[in-house]
C-alpha cells in the first residue's frame, strides 16, 4: 500500500491537505518555540524551517491556481520556485511597509516569523477557497521509485559531506576520490543501461548534482570563492541594522536573491549566513539540473535527458564558480522553470502567462547578468519564430515538424506527430519583461545595473572592429590560443572543444530532421541564439570577460546541453554506417554507450581527478589542499575580523587571492598590492593570509584589457619598512 505522494500535495483532497498542512505547521512552530526557549534539538528546526518556507507557500500558490496533475517533479520544482518568489516579495514589501508603521527592523526574527506565518495562512485560505470543488486525483505513486539503486543514489550527498569533513580535518581526500569515481560509474551505468532503471534517473540527477556541489561548497568552515564574499557583506549589512538599504550603489545590492532571501533563510532556520550559502543554496541549486532533465525528457527521452544533465553538471563551473555566485544560482532555478513552462503546451494560456511573468520577474531581481542575457536572447528568438511562421507552408511544416509521418525511431520510441503547436514565446511577454527590468534596474542600487550594461556595450562597440579575435580583448579567444601547461591539459582542452562541436552538429541534425527530434520551436529558437552567444564569447571583445568565458558557456549549456547528445547520436550513426565493425569496439556498442564514456572522461577532467592522480598541475578546489586558492581558514578569517574591527578607514593592501576574503568585510578600503612596493600609501595596512605567511609569497595580478595575468613574488619586498601589528600563525597584519 502506497502513501499519498508528499511531492504532489496539491493533488490531495482538500480535507486531507488541510489537516496534514496544519499538522506540519504546528510541528514547525513548536520546534522554533522550543529552540527559542533553549531546548535545541539538533537540525530539527533547520530541516522543518527549510521545508516549510521552501515548498509550502509554493504548494499553496499552485493550489490557488488550480494547477493539478503536473507530476511529482514539476510540482516540486514549481512549488520551490513559487515559494522563493513569495519569500523575496515578502522581504521586499516588509522592508518598505514596516518602517512606515514605526517598526524599523523588518529583517529581524520578531518581524519575519509572524509575517511569514500570516502570509501562509492567507495563501491557505485562498487555496482552499479557489480550489473548493477539487476532490483529489487519488495519486498513490510512491515519492521515491522502488529500485535497488535508490539507497545507493541517496547516499551520494552524504558521502560528499563525509569526504569534505575528512578533508577539512585530516587533509585526506580518499572519500572524495571515491565519490567522483562512483558518479562516473553511474554515468556509465546509464549509458550501458545497467543497474539504474529509468524511473530512478530524476533521483540520480539530483543526487549527483548535490554531491558535486557539496564536494566543493563544504570545503573549509567559511565561504570560499570570489563574488560570494561581497554577497556575504551585503547580507550582513541587512542583518545588522535589520533593514535593506536599496540605495547602496552596488549591482549586487539590487538582487533580492541575496539581500532578501539569505537573511530570511538565516533568521527562520537559525543558521549563520555562511551556512545558508554552503548548505541551503546547494540544496536549491541542485534543482536546476532536475528541471533541465524534465524539460529535455519531455522533448526526447529519459536517457538523452540524463546524459544532457550529466554533461551540464560535469562542467566545472557548475560546482566551482557557481558556488561563489549565490545570486546566479537562484536566477538559474527560475530560468529552468521558465523553460519548463515554455515547452508545456498543455497548460492553459492564463496560468502559463502568470508563471512565465512571475519566473521572468524573479530572474530580473535575482541576477542582472543572466536577466540581460535571457532578455536579449528572446528578441532574436521571437523574430526567428515569426520569420518561420511567414515562410511558405511547405517549408514551414518541414521546419516545425508538424506534417508527415516520421520513420520509427529506436532511440526515442516516438512514432506519432503532435497536433499543431501553440507558440508560447510572444511579443507581449518580452515587452512585459523589458518593462519590469527597466523599472527595477533604474530604481534600486542607484541604477548601477544599467550603468554596468551600458559600460560593457561601450567597450564592445569601441573595440569591435579593432580588437575582434584579439586574445587580449576577447577572453574566449585567449583561452583557445593560450598554450596549455602540460600535454594532459592540452588533451582536456580538446575534449572541451569537442563538446562544442557536438552541440553544433546536434543543432544542425535537429534542424535537418525535425520529424525525428521533438524539440519545441521556442526551445530550438533560443538555443540557436545561445549558440551565437557562445561564438560571441570567442570573437567579440570584452563580451565574455563581463561574466567570464566559463560562466558564459555554463549559462548557454542550460539550453545547449541536449544538442551535444543529439549531435553525438548523429555522428555515431554516420560512423557506424561507414564502419560497421565500430559497434564491436569497447564502449561503442550503442550511441549511448559511446556518449556516456565520453562524458565520464569529460567529468574526470573537469573535476580534476585525472590531474590529481597523475600529479599533473592539479586544478581541483576540493582534491588539491596545498595550492593557492580562494579557500580561507579560521585564522585568516580571525585576522580579517581583527583588522576591520578596529573601525579605521585607512587603506588595506592585500594580494590577488586574499582580496576576496577582505571583500566580505569592507569593500571600500582595500587595495590590490602593486608590483612596485613604493607605490603603497603611507599610514596603510598590509594583510597576509596563510599562504603568504607560510610560502613567503604574494600573488600580483595585472589586467590587460579583458585578460588578467598573475604571478608570484617575494613577500619580503613589501614588509621591509612595515611594522607587524598582528600575528596568529595563520595571518599577519603590518602597518606602515
From TrEMBL:
Signal peptide feature range: none
Segments forming a coiled coil: none
UniProt xrefs under InterPro entries: DUF2206_membrane
Keyword set, alphabetical order: Membrane, Transmembrane, Transmembrane helix
Residue ranges crossing the lipid bilayer per the database entry: 17-41, 47-65, 77-101, 107-128, 149-166, 172-191, 203-224, 275-293, 300-319, 355-375, 420-441, 524-546, 552-572, 592-614
Domain of life of the native organism: Archaea
Pfam families: DUF2206 (PF09971)
Protein name (database record): DUF2206 domain-containing protein
Source organism: Methanoculleus bourgensis (strain ATCC 43281 / DSM 3045 / OCM 15 / MS2) (Methanogenium bourgense)
Amino acid at each position: 500500500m502506497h502513501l499519498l505522494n508528499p511531492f504532489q500535495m496539491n493533488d490531495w483532497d482538500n480535507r486531507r491537505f488541510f489537516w496534514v498542512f496544519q499538522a506540519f505547521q504546528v510541528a514547525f512552530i513548536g520546534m522554533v518555540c522550543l529552540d527559542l526557549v533553549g531546548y535545541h534539538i539538533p537540525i530539527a528546526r533547520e530541516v522543518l524551517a527549510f521545508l516549510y518556507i521552501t515548498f509550502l507557500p509554493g504548494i499553496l500558490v499552485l493550489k490557488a491556481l488550480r494547477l493539478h496533475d503536473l507530476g511529482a517533479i514539476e510540482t516540486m520544482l514549481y512549488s520551490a520556485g513559487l515559494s522563493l518568489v513569495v519569500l523575496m516579495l515578502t522581504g521586499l514589501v516588509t522592508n518598505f511597509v514596516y518602517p512606515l508603521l514605526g517598526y524599523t527592523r523588518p529583517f529581524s526574527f520578531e518581524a519575519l516569523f509572524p509575517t511569514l506565518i500570516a502570509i501562509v495562512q492567507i495563501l491557505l485560505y485562498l487555496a482552499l477557497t479557489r480550489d473548493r470543488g477539487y476532490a483529489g486525483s487519488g495519486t498513490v505513486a510512491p515519492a521515491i521509485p522502488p529500485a535497488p539503486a535508490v539507497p545507493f543514489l541517496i547516499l551520494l550527498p552524504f558521502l560528499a559531506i563525509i569526504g569534505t569533513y575528512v578533508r577539512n580535518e585530516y587533509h585526506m581526500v580518499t572519500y572524495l576520490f571515491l565519490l567522483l569515481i562512483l558518479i562516473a560509474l553511474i554515468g556509465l551505468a546509464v549509458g550501458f543501461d545497467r543497474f539504474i532503471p529509468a524511473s530512478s534517473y530524476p533521483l540520480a540527477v539530483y543526487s549527483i548534482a548535490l554531491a558535486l556541489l557539496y564536494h566543493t561548497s563544504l570545503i573549509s568552515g567559511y565561504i570560499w570563492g570570489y563574488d560570494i564574499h561581497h554577497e556575504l557583506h551585503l547580507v550582513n549589512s541587512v542583518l545588522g541594522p535589520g533593514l535593506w538599504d536599496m540605495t547602496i550603489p552596488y549591482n549586487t545590492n539590487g538582487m533580492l536573491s541575496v539581500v532578501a532571501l539569505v537573511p530570511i533563510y538565516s533568521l527562520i532556520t537559525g543558521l549563520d549566513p555562511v551556512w545558508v550559502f554552503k548548505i541551503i543554496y546547494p540544496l536549491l541549486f541542485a534543482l536546476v539540473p532536475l528541471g533541465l532533465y524534465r524539460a529535455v525528457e519531455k522533448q526526447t527521452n529519459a536517457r538523452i535527458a540524463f546524459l544532457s544533465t550529466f554533461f551540464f553538471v560535469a562542467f566545472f563551473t557548475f560546482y566551482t564558480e557557481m558556488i561563489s555566485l549565490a545570486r546566479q544560482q537562484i536566477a538559474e532555478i527560475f530560468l529552468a522553470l521558465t523553460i519548463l513552462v515554455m515547452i508545456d503546451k498543455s497548460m492553459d494560456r492564463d496560468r502559463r502567462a502568470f508563471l512565465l511573468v512571475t519566473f521572468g520577474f524573479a530572474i530580473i531581481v535575482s541576477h542582472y547578468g543572466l536577466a540581460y542575457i535571457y532578455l536579449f536572447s528572446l528578441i532574436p528568438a521571437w523574430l526567428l519564430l515569426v520569420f518561420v511562421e511567414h515562410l511558405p507552408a511547405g517549408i514551414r511544416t518541414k521546419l516545425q515538424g508538424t506534417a508527415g509521418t516520421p520513420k520509427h525511431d529506436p532511440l526515442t520510441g516516438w512514432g506519432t506527430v503532435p497536433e499543431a503547436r501553440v507558440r508560447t514565446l510572444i511579443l507581449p511577454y518580452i515587452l512585459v519583461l523589458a518593462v519590469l527590468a527597466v523599472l527595477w534596474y533604474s530604481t534600486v542600487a542607484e541604477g548601477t545595473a544599467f550603468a554596468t550594461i551600458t559600460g560593457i556595450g561601450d567597450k564592445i562597440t569601441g573595440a569591435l572592429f579593432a580588437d575582434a579575435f584579439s586574445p587580449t580583448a576577447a577572453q574566449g579567444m585567449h583561452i583557445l590560443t593560450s598554450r596549455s601547461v602540460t600535454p594532459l591539459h592540452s588533451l582536456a582542452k580538446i575534449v572541451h572543444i569537442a563538446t562544442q562541436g557536438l552541440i553544433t552538429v546536434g543543432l544542425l541534425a535537429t534542424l535537418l530532421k525535425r520529424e525525428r527530434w521533438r524539440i519545441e520551436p521556442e526551445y530550438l529558437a533560443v538555443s540557436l541564439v545561445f549558440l551565437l552567444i557562445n561564438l560571441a564569447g570567442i570573437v567579440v571583445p570584452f563580451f565574455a570577460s563581463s561574466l567570464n568565458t566559463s560562466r558564459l558557456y555554463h549559462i548557454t549549456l542550460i539550453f545547449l546541453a541536449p544538442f551535444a547528445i543529439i549531435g553525438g547520436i548523429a555522428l555515431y550513426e554516420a560512423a557506424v554506417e561507414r564502419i560497421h565493425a565500430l559497434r564491436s569496439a569497447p564502449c561503442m556498442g550503442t550511441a549511448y554507450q559511446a556518449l556516456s564514456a565520453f562524458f565520464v572522461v569529460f567529468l574526470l577532467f573537469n573535476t580534476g581527478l585525472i590531474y590529481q592522480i597523475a600529479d599533473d598541475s592539479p586544478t581541483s578546489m576540493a582534491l588539491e589542499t596545498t595550492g593557492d586558492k580562494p579557500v580561507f581558514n579560521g585564522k585568516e578569517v580571525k585576522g580579517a575580523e581583527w583588522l576591520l574591527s578596529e573601525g579605521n578607514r585607512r587603506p588595506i593592501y592585500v594580494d590577488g587571492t586574499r582580496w576576496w576574503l577582505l571583500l566580505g568585510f569592507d569593500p571600500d578600503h582595500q587595495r590590490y598590492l602593486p608590483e612596485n612596493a613604493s607605490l603603497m600609501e603611507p599610514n596603510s595596512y598590509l594583510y597576509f593570509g596563510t599562504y603568504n605567511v607560510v610560502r613567503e609569497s604574494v600573488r600580483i595580478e595585472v589586467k590587460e584589457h579583458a585578460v588578467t595575468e598573475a604571478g608570484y613574488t617575494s613577500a619580503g619586498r613589501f614588509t621591509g619598512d612595515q611594522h607587524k601589528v598582528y600575528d596568529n600563525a595563520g595571518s599577519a597584519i603590518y602597518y606602515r
